[in-house]
Amino acid sequence: MPGYKFSCSSCGWRTDPTPNLLSCTVCESPLDVEYMSGSAPSVQPKGWRGPLIPLPISSQEDYLTLGEGNTPVVNLERICEFTDVELFAKLEFLNPTGSFKDRGTSIMISVLKSMGITELVEDSSGNAGASVSAYSALAGITANIFAPTAAPGPKISQIKVYGAETHLIEGTRDETTEAAIRFASENSLSYASHNLSPFFIEGTKIFAYEVFEQFSGEMPTDVVIPVGNGSLYLGMWKGLVELKEEGLIGTLPKLHCVQAKSVMPVAAAYKGQNWDISCLKPTIAGGIAVATPPRLHQVIQVLQKSGGTAITVSEEEIGCWHTYLPANEGLFAEPTSAAAFAGAEKLVESGIIPAGSRILIPVTGFGLKDFSPV
Description:
Its cofactor is pyridoxal 5'-phosphate. The protein is an alpha/beta fold. Helix content is 36%, strand content 16%. The chain is built from twelve helices and 13 strands. Strands 4-5-13-10-11-12 form a six-stranded mixed sheet, sandwiched between helices. The protein has a four-stranded parallel sheet with strand order 8-7-6-9, sandwiched between helices. Strands 2-1-3 form a three-stranded antiparallel sheet. The longest helix has 15 residues, at 231-245. It is globular, with a radius of gyration of 19 Å.
Protein backbone atom coordinates (compact mmCIF):
# COMPACT_ATOMS: atom_id res chain seq x y z
CA MET A 1 0.00 0.00 0.00
CA PRO A 2 1.25 3.52 -0.77
CA GLY A 3 2.08 5.75 2.17
CA TYR A 4 -0.46 8.38 1.16
CA LYS A 5 -4.14 8.99 0.50
CA PHE A 6 -6.18 11.44 -1.54
CA SER A 7 -7.62 14.21 0.63
CA CYS A 8 -10.32 16.70 -0.34
CA SER A 9 -9.04 20.28 -0.46
CA SER A 10 -12.32 21.52 1.06
CA CYS A 11 -14.14 19.03 3.28
CA GLY A 12 -11.28 16.74 4.31
CA TRP A 13 -12.80 13.53 2.84
CA ARG A 14 -10.11 10.88 2.31
CA THR A 15 -9.78 7.84 0.10
CA ASP A 16 -7.20 5.50 -1.39
CA PRO A 17 -5.56 6.84 -4.57
CA THR A 18 -6.79 5.72 -8.00
CA PRO A 19 -5.68 7.04 -11.41
CA ASN A 20 -9.06 8.37 -12.56
CA LEU A 21 -10.31 10.07 -9.39
CA LEU A 22 -9.80 13.83 -9.67
CA SER A 23 -12.43 15.31 -7.37
CA CYS A 24 -14.09 14.67 -4.03
CA THR A 25 -17.15 12.40 -4.23
CA VAL A 26 -18.74 14.37 -1.37
CA CYS A 27 -18.33 18.02 -2.42
CA GLU A 28 -16.62 17.77 -5.86
CA SER A 29 -13.61 19.87 -4.80
CA PRO A 30 -10.12 19.03 -6.14
CA LEU A 31 -8.05 16.43 -4.31
CA ASP A 32 -4.56 16.62 -2.80
CA VAL A 33 -2.00 14.01 -1.80
CA GLU A 34 -1.80 13.57 1.98
CA TYR A 35 1.07 11.49 3.36
CA MET A 36 0.40 9.13 6.22
CA SER A 37 2.05 9.72 9.57
CA GLY A 38 5.22 7.69 9.89
CA SER A 39 5.72 7.13 6.15
CA ALA A 40 9.36 8.01 5.48
CA PRO A 41 10.33 9.38 2.03
CA SER A 42 12.50 6.96 0.08
CA VAL A 43 12.27 7.76 -3.65
CA GLN A 44 13.98 11.08 -4.50
CA PRO A 45 14.74 13.07 -7.66
CA LYS A 46 17.90 11.87 -9.38
CA GLY A 47 20.98 13.53 -7.88
CA TRP A 48 19.01 15.33 -5.15
CA ARG A 49 21.08 15.96 -2.01
CA GLY A 50 18.80 18.32 -0.13
CA PRO A 51 16.11 17.62 2.49
CA LEU A 52 14.06 14.49 1.89
CA ILE A 53 11.02 15.23 -0.26
CA PRO A 54 7.80 13.23 0.29
CA LEU A 55 6.76 11.86 -3.13
CA PRO A 56 3.94 9.50 -4.21
CA ILE A 57 6.25 7.11 -6.07
CA SER A 58 6.80 3.63 -4.67
CA SER A 59 10.16 2.74 -6.20
CA GLN A 60 13.07 4.52 -7.86
CA GLU A 61 12.50 2.37 -10.95
CA ASP A 62 9.05 3.95 -11.39
CA TYR A 63 10.48 7.49 -11.42
CA LEU A 64 10.42 8.74 -15.03
CA THR A 65 12.72 11.67 -15.66
CA LEU A 66 14.09 13.66 -18.58
CA GLY A 67 16.40 15.63 -16.30
CA GLU A 68 13.84 18.17 -15.09
CA GLY A 69 14.57 20.45 -12.14
CA ASN A 70 17.74 21.95 -10.70
CA THR A 71 17.16 25.08 -12.77
CA PRO A 72 19.58 27.95 -12.02
CA VAL A 73 18.83 31.15 -10.14
CA VAL A 74 20.33 34.37 -11.50
CA ASN A 75 20.58 37.83 -9.96
CA LEU A 76 19.10 40.44 -12.31
CA GLU A 77 21.63 43.13 -11.53
CA ARG A 78 20.62 45.62 -14.23
CA ILE A 79 17.05 45.76 -12.93
CA CYS A 80 18.35 46.04 -9.37
CA GLU A 81 20.31 49.16 -10.36
CA PHE A 82 17.12 51.22 -10.61
CA THR A 83 15.14 49.61 -7.80
CA ASP A 84 15.63 49.30 -4.05
CA VAL A 85 15.16 45.53 -4.03
CA GLU A 86 17.18 42.43 -4.87
CA LEU A 87 15.62 40.61 -7.80
CA PHE A 88 16.33 36.98 -8.72
CA ALA A 89 14.98 34.84 -11.54
CA LYS A 90 14.75 31.04 -11.49
CA LEU A 91 15.10 29.87 -15.07
CA GLU A 92 12.30 27.33 -15.36
CA PHE A 93 12.44 27.51 -19.14
CA LEU A 94 15.60 25.36 -18.93
CA ASN A 95 13.49 22.33 -18.08
CA PRO A 96 13.47 19.62 -20.82
CA THR A 97 10.43 20.84 -22.78
CA GLY A 98 10.98 24.53 -21.99
CA SER A 99 8.65 25.17 -19.06
CA PHE A 100 8.11 24.45 -15.37
CA LYS A 101 5.33 22.00 -16.28
CA ASP A 102 7.94 19.21 -16.60
CA ARG A 103 8.20 19.15 -12.80
CA GLY A 104 4.57 18.14 -12.33
CA THR A 105 4.39 15.99 -15.43
CA SER A 106 7.34 13.84 -14.39
CA ILE A 107 5.63 12.82 -11.15
CA MET A 108 2.13 12.53 -12.64
CA ILE A 109 3.18 10.31 -15.56
CA SER A 110 5.43 8.21 -13.31
CA VAL A 111 2.52 7.40 -11.00
CA LEU A 112 0.00 6.84 -13.81
CA LYS A 113 2.32 4.42 -15.60
CA SER A 114 2.91 2.51 -12.36
CA MET A 115 -0.90 2.27 -12.00
CA GLY A 116 -1.20 0.66 -15.43
CA ILE A 117 -2.40 3.60 -17.54
CA THR A 118 -1.60 3.07 -21.25
CA GLU A 119 -3.53 5.97 -22.83
CA LEU A 120 -4.53 9.37 -21.48
CA VAL A 121 -6.18 12.69 -22.30
CA GLU A 122 -4.90 16.16 -21.39
CA ASP A 123 -5.89 19.72 -22.33
CA SER A 124 -3.50 22.63 -22.45
CA SER A 125 -2.77 26.06 -23.88
CA GLY A 126 0.56 24.62 -25.00
CA ASN A 127 3.24 24.10 -22.36
CA ALA A 128 1.53 21.35 -20.37
CA GLY A 129 0.50 19.61 -23.58
CA ALA A 130 4.08 19.51 -24.82
CA SER A 131 5.28 18.30 -21.44
CA VAL A 132 2.69 15.52 -21.14
CA SER A 133 3.42 14.49 -24.74
CA ALA A 134 7.15 14.19 -24.03
CA TYR A 135 6.84 12.23 -20.78
CA SER A 136 4.12 10.02 -22.25
CA ALA A 137 6.51 9.17 -25.10
CA LEU A 138 9.14 8.28 -22.48
CA ALA A 139 6.60 6.12 -20.63
CA GLY A 140 5.20 4.42 -23.74
CA ILE A 141 1.75 5.93 -23.08
CA THR A 142 -0.52 7.14 -25.90
CA ALA A 143 -1.33 10.82 -25.32
CA ASN A 144 -4.37 12.68 -26.63
CA ILE A 145 -3.70 16.41 -26.25
CA PHE A 146 -6.46 18.99 -26.66
CA ALA A 147 -5.41 22.59 -27.34
CA PRO A 148 -7.19 25.72 -28.57
CA THR A 149 -6.56 26.69 -32.19
CA ALA A 150 -5.36 30.06 -30.89
CA ALA A 151 -2.40 28.44 -29.10
CA PRO A 152 1.00 29.55 -30.47
CA GLY A 153 2.19 27.54 -33.46
CA PRO A 154 5.53 26.53 -31.91
CA LYS A 155 3.72 25.00 -28.93
CA ILE A 156 1.39 22.99 -31.16
CA SER A 157 4.33 21.79 -33.23
CA GLN A 158 6.13 20.71 -30.08
CA ILE A 159 3.11 18.69 -28.94
CA LYS A 160 2.99 16.93 -32.30
CA VAL A 161 6.71 16.20 -32.54
CA TYR A 162 6.54 13.96 -29.44
CA GLY A 163 3.98 11.79 -31.24
CA ALA A 164 0.82 12.83 -29.39
CA GLU A 165 -2.60 12.69 -30.99
CA THR A 166 -3.34 16.42 -31.22
CA HIS A 167 -6.93 17.70 -31.08
CA LEU A 168 -7.29 21.40 -31.94
CA ILE A 169 -10.45 23.03 -30.62
CA GLU A 170 -12.11 26.18 -31.96
CA GLY A 171 -13.02 28.23 -28.91
CA THR A 172 -11.73 29.33 -25.54
CA ARG A 173 -9.32 27.61 -23.19
CA ASP A 174 -12.28 26.50 -21.06
CA GLU A 175 -14.11 25.06 -24.07
CA THR A 176 -10.95 23.08 -24.84
CA THR A 177 -11.12 21.58 -21.35
CA GLU A 178 -14.76 20.63 -21.85
CA ALA A 179 -13.90 18.88 -25.13
CA ALA A 180 -11.08 16.92 -23.48
CA ILE A 181 -13.28 15.77 -20.58
CA ARG A 182 -15.99 14.70 -23.01
CA PHE A 183 -13.50 12.73 -25.14
CA ALA A 184 -12.02 10.99 -22.10
CA SER A 185 -15.47 10.01 -20.85
CA GLU A 186 -16.73 8.79 -24.23
CA ASN A 187 -13.61 6.65 -24.77
CA SER A 188 -13.15 5.47 -21.15
CA LEU A 189 -9.68 7.02 -20.96
CA SER A 190 -7.77 8.53 -18.05
CA TYR A 191 -8.13 12.30 -17.92
CA ALA A 192 -4.62 13.32 -16.82
CA SER A 193 -5.43 16.94 -16.10
CA HIS A 194 -2.44 18.93 -14.89
CA ASN A 195 -5.01 21.29 -13.38
CA LEU A 196 -6.73 18.62 -11.29
CA SER A 197 -4.32 15.71 -10.83
CA PRO A 198 -3.23 15.48 -7.18
CA PHE A 199 0.09 14.13 -8.42
CA PHE A 200 1.00 17.18 -10.51
CA ILE A 201 1.45 19.51 -7.52
CA GLU A 202 3.67 16.88 -5.90
CA GLY A 203 6.10 17.59 -8.73
CA THR A 204 5.85 21.37 -8.75
CA LYS A 205 6.46 21.51 -4.98
CA ILE A 206 10.06 20.42 -5.65
CA PHE A 207 10.57 24.00 -6.87
CA ALA A 208 10.35 25.16 -3.23
CA TYR A 209 12.94 22.63 -2.07
CA GLU A 210 15.36 23.80 -4.75
CA VAL A 211 14.87 27.44 -3.76
CA PHE A 212 15.60 26.49 -0.15
CA GLU A 213 18.88 24.89 -1.21
CA GLN A 214 19.88 27.62 -3.65
CA PHE A 215 19.33 30.37 -1.10
CA SER A 216 21.07 28.34 1.63
CA GLY A 217 17.95 28.40 3.77
CA GLU A 218 17.71 32.23 3.65
CA MET A 219 14.49 32.32 1.67
CA PRO A 220 13.43 35.30 -0.47
CA THR A 221 11.01 37.64 1.26
CA ASP A 222 8.65 37.59 -1.72
CA VAL A 223 7.94 35.24 -4.61
CA VAL A 224 5.97 36.63 -7.58
CA ILE A 225 4.30 33.98 -9.75
CA PRO A 226 2.09 34.22 -12.86
CA VAL A 227 -1.09 32.29 -12.07
CA GLY A 228 -3.58 30.63 -14.40
CA ASN A 229 -4.57 27.36 -12.76
CA GLY A 230 -2.02 27.86 -10.01
CA SER A 231 -0.07 24.58 -10.14
CA LEU A 232 3.32 26.22 -9.54
CA TYR A 233 1.86 28.64 -7.00
CA LEU A 234 0.21 25.87 -4.97
CA GLY A 235 3.20 23.57 -5.36
CA MET A 236 5.54 26.26 -4.07
CA TRP A 237 3.34 26.71 -1.00
CA LYS A 238 3.06 23.00 -0.29
CA GLY A 239 6.83 22.62 -0.46
CA LEU A 240 7.34 25.59 1.85
CA VAL A 241 4.88 24.21 4.40
CA GLU A 242 6.63 20.84 4.38
CA LEU A 243 10.00 22.53 4.94
CA LYS A 244 8.55 24.53 7.83
CA GLU A 245 7.00 21.43 9.40
CA GLU A 246 10.45 19.84 9.34
CA GLY A 247 11.83 22.86 11.19
CA LEU A 248 14.08 23.87 8.29
CA ILE A 249 12.68 27.36 7.72
CA GLY A 250 11.01 29.89 9.95
CA THR A 251 9.32 32.82 8.24
CA LEU A 252 7.76 31.87 4.92
CA PRO A 253 7.94 34.13 1.86
CA LYS A 254 4.90 36.05 0.75
CA LEU A 255 3.55 34.46 -2.41
CA HIS A 256 2.13 37.02 -4.82
CA CYS A 257 -0.14 36.15 -7.73
CA VAL A 258 -0.06 37.97 -11.08
CA GLN A 259 -2.82 37.78 -13.67
CA ALA A 260 -3.61 39.58 -16.92
CA LYS A 261 -6.39 42.16 -16.63
CA SER A 262 -8.03 40.37 -19.54
CA VAL A 263 -8.41 37.11 -17.56
CA MET A 264 -8.47 37.76 -13.81
CA PRO A 265 -10.67 35.31 -11.85
CA VAL A 266 -8.17 34.95 -8.98
CA ALA A 267 -7.44 38.66 -8.63
CA ALA A 268 -11.16 39.45 -8.72
CA ALA A 269 -11.99 36.85 -6.07
CA TYR A 270 -9.14 38.10 -3.89
CA LYS A 271 -10.44 41.68 -4.12
CA GLY A 272 -14.11 40.71 -3.76
CA GLN A 273 -14.94 41.89 -7.28
CA ASN A 274 -17.44 40.38 -9.68
CA TRP A 275 -15.82 38.56 -12.60
CA ASP A 276 -16.97 35.67 -14.76
CA ILE A 277 -16.31 34.16 -18.15
CA SER A 278 -18.40 36.85 -19.84
CA CYS A 279 -15.66 39.34 -18.89
CA LEU A 280 -13.02 37.31 -20.74
CA LYS A 281 -10.83 39.22 -23.22
CA PRO A 282 -7.86 38.12 -25.36
CA THR A 283 -4.40 38.23 -23.80
CA ILE A 284 -0.90 37.60 -25.11
CA ALA A 285 -0.19 35.73 -21.86
CA GLY A 286 -1.85 32.50 -22.96
CA GLY A 287 -0.35 30.45 -20.13
CA ILE A 288 -2.50 32.29 -17.58
CA ALA A 289 -5.63 32.72 -19.72
CA VAL A 290 -7.77 30.49 -17.49
CA ALA A 291 -11.25 31.82 -16.76
CA THR A 292 -12.42 29.11 -14.35
CA PRO A 293 -9.45 27.67 -12.43
CA PRO A 294 -10.63 24.56 -10.53
CA ARG A 295 -8.32 25.24 -7.58
CA LEU A 296 -9.36 28.88 -7.20
CA HIS A 297 -10.31 28.50 -3.53
CA GLN A 298 -6.91 26.99 -2.74
CA VAL A 299 -5.06 29.86 -4.42
CA ILE A 300 -7.08 32.37 -2.39
CA GLN A 301 -6.27 30.46 0.81
CA VAL A 302 -2.54 30.59 0.04
CA LEU A 303 -2.72 34.31 -0.71
CA GLN A 304 -4.27 34.81 2.72
CA LYS A 305 -1.97 32.46 4.60
CA SER A 306 1.24 33.74 3.01
CA GLY A 307 0.31 37.42 3.19
CA GLY A 308 0.58 37.71 -0.57
CA THR A 309 -1.26 40.00 -2.96
CA ALA A 310 -3.09 39.29 -6.22
CA ILE A 311 -2.41 41.92 -8.85
CA THR A 312 -3.33 42.43 -12.51
CA VAL A 313 -1.28 43.82 -15.38
CA SER A 314 -2.28 45.24 -18.75
CA GLU A 315 -1.37 43.89 -22.18
CA GLU A 316 0.89 46.91 -22.66
CA GLU A 317 2.72 46.22 -19.38
CA ILE A 318 3.21 42.57 -20.32
CA GLY A 319 4.48 43.58 -23.76
CA CYS A 320 6.99 46.06 -22.31
CA TRP A 321 8.60 43.39 -20.12
CA HIS A 322 8.42 40.82 -22.92
CA THR A 323 10.69 43.17 -24.89
CA TYR A 324 12.82 44.48 -22.00
CA LEU A 325 13.96 41.15 -20.55
CA PRO A 326 15.80 39.77 -23.60
CA ALA A 327 17.25 43.14 -24.60
CA ASN A 328 18.55 44.04 -21.13
CA GLU A 329 18.94 40.82 -19.12
CA GLY A 330 19.39 38.25 -21.89
CA LEU A 331 16.27 36.36 -20.80
CA PHE A 332 13.89 35.45 -23.62
CA ALA A 333 10.73 34.62 -21.67
CA GLU A 334 7.26 33.87 -22.93
CA PRO A 335 4.63 36.61 -22.31
CA THR A 336 3.21 34.70 -19.33
CA SER A 337 6.58 35.03 -17.57
CA ALA A 338 6.83 38.68 -18.57
CA ALA A 339 3.53 39.26 -16.78
CA ALA A 340 5.16 38.25 -13.49
CA PHE A 341 7.87 40.90 -13.93
CA ALA A 342 5.23 43.51 -14.77
CA GLY A 343 3.38 42.54 -11.61
CA ALA A 344 6.53 42.69 -9.50
CA GLU A 345 7.22 46.21 -10.78
CA LYS A 346 3.75 47.35 -9.68
CA LEU A 347 4.09 45.63 -6.29
CA VAL A 348 7.38 47.45 -5.64
CA GLU A 349 6.16 50.83 -6.92
CA SER A 350 3.04 50.61 -4.74
CA GLY A 351 5.09 49.76 -1.64
CA ILE A 352 3.35 46.39 -1.19
CA ILE A 353 6.81 44.91 -1.57
CA PRO A 354 9.00 47.31 0.45
CA ALA A 355 12.53 48.49 -0.26
CA GLY A 356 15.23 46.04 0.75
CA SER A 357 13.16 42.98 -0.11
CA ARG A 358 14.55 39.91 -1.88
CA ILE A 359 12.22 38.95 -4.72
CA LEU A 360 12.22 35.70 -6.68
CA ILE A 361 10.38 35.32 -10.00
CA PRO A 362 10.15 32.01 -11.88
CA VAL A 363 10.69 32.42 -15.62
CA THR A 364 8.09 29.79 -16.33
CA GLY A 365 8.44 29.30 -20.10
CA PHE A 366 10.85 29.92 -23.00
CA GLY A 367 10.26 32.78 -25.43
CA LEU A 368 10.85 30.66 -28.54
CA LYS A 369 7.67 28.72 -27.70
CA ASP A 370 5.47 31.80 -28.20
CA PHE A 371 5.20 34.71 -30.58
CA SER A 372 8.21 37.00 -31.04
CA PRO A 373 8.11 40.51 -29.54
CA VAL A 374 10.03 41.91 -32.56
